Fold DMT family transporter.
Amino acid sequence: MTETWAAVLLALASALSQALGTVMRHRTMDRAGGRLEGRFGVLASRYWWSGMLISLAGFAFQGLALAFGSLILVQTISVTSLIFALPLGAWMNHRQVSKTELFWGHVLTACVMVLVIFGRPTGGEAHPTFWEWVLACVGGLVVVGILLRFARRRHSNGGRAVLFGVAGGAAFAYVALFTKGVTQRWHEGGAWEVATTGEVYALGVAAVAALTLQQMSFEAGAVHQAVPASTVTTPVISLVLGVLVLGERFQVDGAHLVLLAATLAVMAVATVALARKEVGPGPPRAGRVAVVGGRRSAGVGGDGAVGGDGPAAGGDLHDHDDDNAATA
């Protein structure tokens, strides 16, 4: 019981750190006002690096949590990062969290509690056979490859952000899977045991892929599109990997499994509902949007950056119908 509580607390610390780091890194794009050059322009931002360091701290908390608890347990709790990200994003963008967001946040929290307390996920085999690893990795590569192919065919930024977010979420599930193996190797034989087995190298590849895909989702769309897509995908893929690869299980059967399945469905609905909420813009200011030559033109952002088709750098520009905008 003590180890389970340690895993729960560490997983919550990981979720909070990941939420704050994610919002800060996405906020870098807004603060730049379109002035970042290329995909790696964010590397020049101290704000982005601060968010990255906080995210890495979250990754460390996750690794410690996986040392005490099962993959299913830790990754189910990780979905609370979305609950943390909503108020953090609202605070950074000077807006209030709506009653609807609070409602669905509470629903999502309740679902996590049911899965953890009622489902009581238990551990399995930390070191599957070589062929089980190969099949799991090939399956992940195929899924991510299909998602990227569809994402590049999408014309809307929102669609690309969601698909990149789902691909990043799948990659983060593999990060957690390999982290579980690495922590067990460390516990069994220390650094030498870790260095002479394949999990740590697979972990490095998966981590780079996950962070790259996440950054691509941030660049493609808004945080309320990218973060929920990634957040809901990670625990779902982790549950599948935990059951099929590690042999983990919920300690219920029969009709109780139906209840858990219904809880997972409600959790997905709550996440989608939260994904449809804007995490950033507040009420528009007078004269902020104008129609110029039949096109919408955004005014100057809150911190001096000139807005484009998306939210201004200050994060307080809403999209309005043309007939409600001032005509230049």
